[in-house]
Amino acid sequence: MDTQETPLVIFTILAQLSVGAFVINGVLHVLAGRKNGQAKVDKLSDPALYAIGPVMIVALAVSLAHLGDPLHAIYTCENFGRSWLSREIVFGVAFAVGAIIFSIAHAHKWFTPMLLQLVAGLTALFGLAFIFSQGMIYVIPTIPGWDSWATPVASSSPLSSSGDSPSGSTS
């Protein structure tokens, strides 16, 4: 693997880990809370919940190493309507902010349960839109082998080592 792609691999793994952990934690929290009570479930799930936002922040910070000029990162969001990369950045940041707001509000019991669930649901949707955007970056019409529904599925594995893969390794 080319080492210049290492930040991209680390970013992809940590970011997808954060989204997956948030969504699974939420589903388990709802299902287990019905059976065992919210206090018990909170005690078990809160440590994971409080790690998700910071891990996503680390992932976003690592992703800046992949840019030519990290100070110009904000300009990559200008084409949200046309660019999957712009969408990936916006949804990734929205997920990180939502996860942190949710974690803090949950810890301090700031919102009503209904409002807290709404924040969690929106955060999960941002996270899933972020992962979808990551895959869609590699659907490129000028590369016929990548221009299919299979590309986003294949790109969810950043450690793929096939010769002509969307993960960027073309040895």
Write the layout of secondary structure elements.
Blueprint lengths: L5 H31 L1 H26 L20 H25 L4 H24 L13 H6 L16
Helix pairs in contact: 1-2, 1-4, 2-3, 3-4
Strand percent estimate: under 5%
Overall 3D geometry? Answer: elongated
Task: Compute the number of strand runs.
Answer: 0
Please outline the major beta sheet: none
What is the radius of gyration computed over CA atoms, rounded to a whole number of angstroms?
A: 18 Å
What pattern of helices and strands is seen along the backbone?
HHHHH
Distance between the termini: 8 Å
Structural class: mainly alpha
Mean pLDDT: 81
User: How much helix, percentage-wise, in residues?
Assistant: 55-70%
Number of domains: 1
Q: Please, how many helices? A: 5
Features:
disordered C terminus, 5 helices, elongated, mainly alpha
Explain how this protein is built.
There is one protein chain. The chain is mostly helical and 171 residues long. The protein has one domain (3-155). It contains five helices and no strands. It has helices at 6-36, 38-63, 84-108, 113-136, 150-155. α1 runs antiparallel to α2, α1 (6-36) packs antiparallel against α4 (113-136) and α3 packs antiparallel against α4 (113-136). The longest helix has 31 residues, at 6-36. It is elongated. The model is unreliable at 160-165 and 167-171 (pLDDT under 50).
